[in-house]
Amino acid sequence: MRMTPFAVVLLLAAATTAWAATGAVSVKVAKNATLGSIVVNAKGMTLYHMTSEKGGKVACTGACAATWPPLLVNGKAKPVAGAGIVAAKLGTVKRPDGKVQVTYAGSPLYAYSGDTARGDVNGEGVESVWFALAPTGKVVKPAPAAASSSSTANSTAGSASTSTTPGYDYGY
Questions:
Q1: 158 class by beta-carbon count within 10 Å (0-12 exposed, 13-18 middle, 19+ buried)
Q2: ∠ at Cα 39 (90, 62), nearest 5°?
Q3: What are the strands, taking DSSP E only, across 89-140?
Q4: How many separate helices (H) and strands (E) can be counted in the chain?
Q5: Is the C or the N end of the chain the one with fewer CB within 10 Å?
């Protein structure tokens, strides 16, 4: 069954609401074939940070939050540190709508409506502001592209969908 983008957004919004409704939200680390070790939710879905959000201020609201559903907790519930997560780096921030969003190393966390399965990283680098987080709390950004080669074998080496070499580092 093929889902429309709208159906995916609704499904993720419902899932995010369900995660928040339980009160306890777990964040853990998973190994991704493309990006290496990254921060994910309890279901193994990649969590992203919008790098234009500074100082713990949430800017992704409205239509943005429909595409990038925030990871929410209920009321005064605290996020739970799963495998590989430094508990002291987990926190929360109050969103403009009054809901409470999970942060890691001060970065508000979001899912991406274009990720439909564990291990998907389709949101990586979107609009040059959305990036997965490493367990250190730093964003995972692509390394500068290497000089291109005329060889056909090298023509897809930098592509996230065909490369088996991560080619990413964990800092700015």
A1: middle
A2: 80
A3: 90-94, 100-104, 107-108, 130-132
A4: 2, 11
A5: N
- Residue 45 tokens read as 């879905």
CB atoms within 10 A of CB 80: 16
Question: Measuring CA to CA, which residue among 171, 163, 136, 160 is closest to residue 29?
Answer: 136
Tokens found for residue 139? 């964003």
Structure-token pair, residue 170: 């964990």
Report how far residue 163's alpha carbon sits from residue 156's, in angstroms, rounded to the nearest whole number: 7
- Name residue 39's amino acid: V
| Helix/strand/coil for 48 | strand
Reduce the DSSP state of residue 62 to 3 states and report it: coil
* Beta-carbon contacts of residue 14 (< 8 Å; ≥ 6 apart): none
Nearest-angstrom CA–CA distance, 103 and 93 = 7
Burial of 153 (0-12, 13-18, 19+ CB in 10 A): exposed
Give residues with Cβ within 8 angstroms of 75, minimum separation 6: 23, 100
pLDDT in tens, 17-73: 444 444 579 999 999 988 999 999 999 999 999 999 988 789 999 999 999 999 999
H/E element holding 31?
strand 26-32
Residue 161: the pLDDT is: 37
